[in-house]
Each structure stands twice: as C-alpha cells, then as structure tokens.
Design goal:
Elements lengths: L30 H13 L9 H20 L2 H17 L5
Length: about 100
C-alpha cells in the first residue's frame, strides 16, 4: 500500500496489536482505556499484579550490577562492546 500524496509505503493498521507493560501484561492501547484501567486499580475493582519475589530480587541485582560493570570496564573496552552491539543491531534484516 502506498500513499498517493507522498508516494511512500504505508503499513496497514493491525488493530489486534495490544501494547504490553514491563512485565508482559496486556495494557489498553488508547488513553481513555488506560485511564479507566488506572481508575479500576485505584478503586479496587482490578488488582494490580505484584512481581514475584525472585524476579524482584534479580531486578535489584541487575540495577546494581550494570553500573558497577560499566565502571570496571575501560573506555576502549566499552567502545568495542558498543560497536559490536551496533553492528549486530543494524545487520539484522528488518521485520515486515
């Protein structure tokens, strides 16, 4: 599908897509739906799910470990890691 005015390809709208929260839960796609969801949590109609203790423990370790690891690495090594990551990221074929 192409835009007549601009002549650029346009992806068809996939209405079945639903954004996911940081823990993989489904969240409302629109602003009003999200506001209703927040209100339901606030009034107690819907329970907001708590993280499992093991996952929370691992998350806290990651928040501490990442900056400590970065502080230990030399500038040259950080640069090498970043270049490798960028090469890997941009060499992947685009999903259609």
């Amino acid at each position: 599908m192409k835009s007549d005015a601009l002549g650029i390809p346009i992806q068809p709208c996939d209405s079945s897509y639903m954004p996911r929260g940081p823990r993989g839960e489904r969240r409302p796609a629109d602003v009003i739906g999200n506001a209703v969801h927040v209100m339901q949590i606030a009034t107690g109609e819907v329970q907001d799910e708590q993280r499992e203790p093991g996952k929370e423990y691992a998350r806290k370790g990651g928040l501490i470990g990442g900056p400590k690891r970065a502080a230990k690495l030399s500038k040259k090594r950080r640069s090498e890691i970043a270049k490798k990551a960028a090469t890997s990221r941009w060499s992947k074929p685009k999903k259609s």
